[in-house]
Design a protein that fits this description.
The protein contains twelve helices and no strands. It has helices at about 5-10, 15-45, 45-55, 60-70, 75-85, 90-95, 105-115, 120-130, 135-160, 175-185, 190-210, 215-235.
């Protein structure tokens, strides 16, 4: 993002900027959130439980896994342990954003950190890297994305009885498509493309080898290490 673009963004109100940043996230959240709502309805969860899960948990993969395990009759501790492992990647995301948040107050960090997801992390990484460190824009972006997920879940639940099967609709491709779009925002040179390709291949290999729950964390660490090594070698 050029300096002129950043200055033009700052002319807009923080809320308007936040809507702009959240728009690609919303496009991915609406179909997937609706799919979650439909599955929750078919599993037997109440509307209140569905909406509360999207409000409190706010983690697409964890919610879908939890619903599937609930339908299979798994005990609560197993569901909690599984979703905890799946969401361990948030430690890496938080650590990556931490250097930009040193001046933030604790209550601001709590509000911001509570609503960080894979998608908002990608957006904020690009923003912070380009010098856009507005607290209000950051928090508003998260809130808008969160509300869209809650509403989509509610709509999906309310229409659940009218949709016999969500698979033919292809809604499961919405998140991968959104991640591809978010990735293109951060790829700026050949090294980034190379590292992204390496990390993607590492994740695929890990999933195929049966380490699907750890694939994102391990692939991210491998990709970061590989990228740092290549960058150091190129500077020699």
């Amino acid at each position: 993002m050029t300096t002129d673009v950043i200055e033009n963004e700052r002319v807009k109100s923080p809320l308007a900027q936040a809507f702009g940043h959240a728009s690609p996230i919303i496009m991915g959240y609406v179909p997937v959130g609706a799919a979650f709502g439909v599955l929750a309805h078919k599993t037997g969860l109440s509307m209140l439980s569905t909406v509360l899960m999207s409000t409190i948990v706010f983690a697409g993969s964890a919610q879908l896994i939890a619903v599937a395990m609930f339908a299979a009759g798994m005990p609560p501790l197993s569901i909690i342990a599984t979703t905890f492992v799946v969401n361990l990647r948030h430690l890496l995301m938080s650590a990556s954003l931490a250097p930009y948040l040193r001046s933030w107050k604790k209550r601001e960090l709590v509000i911001f950190g509570y609503e960080i997801t894979d998608e908002s992390f990608a957006v904020h990484s690009a923003r912070f890297g380009n010098g856009d460190l507005s607290k209000r824009v950051s928090i508003y972006t998260n809130m808008i994305a969160h509300v869209s997920w809650i509403v989509a879940s509610w709509v999906g639940f309310m229409t659940g009885s009218a949709i016999p099967d969500v698979k033919p609709l292809g809604l499961d491709y919405a998140l991968p498509a959104m991640f591809i779009a978010l990735l293109t925002m951060q790829v700026k040179n050949g090294l980034h493309v190379f590292v992204a390709g390496f990390t993607g291949m590492a994740a695929i290999i890990l999933v195929q080898s049966g380490a699907d729950q750890w694939s994102v964390i391990i692939a991210t660490l491998l990709g970061a290490t590989f990228g740092a090594g290549v960058e150091t070698w190129m500077k020699r």
